[in-house]
Amino acid sequence: xxxxxxxxxxxxxxxxxxAWTHPEHNHNHYELIFILSGEGSHVINGYAVPYxxxxxxxxxxxxxHYFDIxxxxxxxxxxxxxxxxxxxxxxxxxxxRQLEYLIKSRETHQHGFPLLAADxxxxxxxxxxxxxxxxxxxxxQDLIWHQLLCISMLLARNMPExxxxxxxxxxxxxxxxxxxxxxxxxxxxxxxxMAPHFNIAADYLGTYFKxxxxxxxxxxxxxxxxxxxxxxxxxxxxxxxxxAEEFGLTDVSHLTKILGKEV
Length: 263
Fold this sequence. Notes:
InterPro entries: AraC_XylS_family_regulators (IPR050204), Cupin_2 (IPR013096), HTH_AraC (IPR018060), RmlC-like_jellyroll (IPR014710), RmlC_Cupin_sf (IPR011051). It comes from Sphingobacterium ginsenosidimutans. This is HTH araC/xylS-type domain-containing protein. The protein is α+β, with helices and mostly antiparallel strands. The chain folds into two domains: about 1-155, Jelly Rolls, CATH 2.60.120; about 165-260, Homeodomain-like (Arc Repressor Mutant, subunit A, Orthogonal Bundle), CATH 1.10.10.60. It contains twelve helices and seven strands. The protein has helices at about 80-85, 90, 95-105, 105-110, 115-130, 135-155, 165-180, 190-195, 200-215, 215-235, 240-245, 250-260, and strands at about 1-5, 10-15, 25, 30-45, 45-50, 55-60, 65-80. α3 packs across α6 (about 135-155).
């Protein structure tokens, strides 16, 4: 399987195709894909997702995929890297968190977005704006960023993460989504607070999570939060005090303590 590498922080691609010419592949960046018209299947991690006009897909570096085109398809691609996301974290705040939520929610990557009609109309317009900015990406990168944030907000409120077969998988995915949405509010990540959301006893929550994930819920929260913090530090746009405040930590010493030698 091939791995495509992108060195630019952001790229926009718009094209039509009747036959997919790329092999099954993954990549080192994120891809937000809009189908203006066409019909076929998007094969993601070996799972075929039928698509037609107005389909939206979000693909992360961990996914491998290709398209099986049955009717000429008009694509708009927005490709971006972590460097693009975290260059503006300090200014974007809560909006960037919506994008982080989409990035972490792998079920969304697998199945796409069943958008409400009104939201779909807006998303279609936003993708058309993005396509119109492709002639000079460097000059338009801030405009593109704001379109991306708007799209991420619309997609986040159409999340299909609970539309899965089997109650155990559905409950587990709901736990992941709860953690990802509330990672900035430590008080909401205590077992006594989380358990009622899933109709489960607080004492059993940790056992259930470890049985199905292979690690404790505390370890998962710790690793996910540290990953986000390290990305902010690497971007160099926020001082440690600002990062500590964003994640609800008491002070910088608390932040450095949880990261240990990584800061």
